[in-house]
Amino acid sequence: MSPDCGSPETRFVADRMLGTLTRYLRFMGYDTLSANGFSPGNAQEDNLLLALAQDEHRILLTRDHELARRGNDRAVLVTEGDVLVQVQQLIDLGLIERRLLMSRCSLCNTVLREAGEDEIRSAGYAPRDKSGFAFLWCDRCRKLYWNGSHGQRLFERIQSGLEF
């Protein structure tokens, strides 16, 4: 993997074994597609991932040694199972920065926008005390996001990381 691949514009596609890493990368603001968005059971899935990485200039993230080998310089073999170690591996490779932007939907990768009052009210899971929060909305999933205690814990986990 060439070290100049890392920038805020770095985009990824991840295999099915990296669902948690995919969500972390999205919370961190990285455009990350997932094989979980494909129909299950497709025998051509590896070929689709490789083509997507090539055609859309994405870095393929995989736990599969053979798939990583086939991806050449467009693939990263993710070697560990713990998501924080996975994040640290990508930081060490210079592909990502330790940050939490909350700019993408963790479910579908859509760029979030500022939520309107009606959207905030319609979300039964929004906090009662809305003061001090910035609310974001996913138009595709119709999901409300805000940086509450869950976001703060996620930010702390990403910031503390696993510096070796």
Explain how this protein is built:
- This protein is an alpha/beta fold and 164 residues long.
- The chain has two domains: 3-92, 3-Layer(aba) Sandwich (Rossmann fold), CATH 3.40.50; 113-160, no CATH class.
- It is built from six helices and seven strands.
- The strands form two sheets. The chain has a four-stranded parallel β-sheet with strand order 2-1-3-4, sandwiched between helices. Strands 5-6-7 form a three-stranded antiparallel β-sheet, with no helix packed on it.
- Helix 1 (19-27) crosses helix 4.
- The chain is globular, with a radius of gyration of 17 Å.
Outline the secondary-structure elements.
Layout: E1 12-14, H1 19-27, E2 32-34, H2 45-55, E3 59-62, H3 65-71, E4 75-77, H4 83-92, E5 113-114, H5 117-122, E6 135-138, E7 143-146, H6 149-160
Parallel strand pairs: 1-2, 1-3, 3-4
Antiparallel strand pairs: 5-6, 6-7
Helix pairs in contact: 1-4
Question: What key attributes describe this structure?
Answer:
164 residues, alpha/beta, Rossmann fold, four-stranded parallel beta sheet, three-stranded antiparallel beta sheet, 6 helices, 7 strands, 14% strand, globular, disordered N terminus
